[in-house]
User: Fold UPF0473 protein GHI93_11300 from Lactococcus hircilactis.
Amino acid sequence: MAHTHDHEHEHHEDEERYITLIDDDGSESLFEILLTIDGQEEFGKNYVLVMPVDGQEDENGEVEIQAYSFTQNEDGSEGDLTPIPEDADEEWDLIEEVFDNFMDQQEEEL
Assistant:
């Protein structure tokens, strides 16, 4: 069962992209948008990878990154974020490939 999350875009002075997600309980959380992926050709939708701004590292020093599919409204305005089904293997493969390339580029820049 997929849950649609209401969201708003917020812009900060450093021009990094942030989004507020509202969960099923009505709790708001601020996330940083790490990466957007164009999956229109393959799957007819785009994807967004987000990381909680106040995310705590786990015991391995990793922070939870969440992925959603994004469908823009027909008028070009903001649309809906939808969790990606766990069994959508081809979609996850695309996301993982793009994310791995993104992380490799980030490491090269350090």
Residues 89-109 form the longest helix (21 residues). The two ends are 40 Å apart (CA to CA).
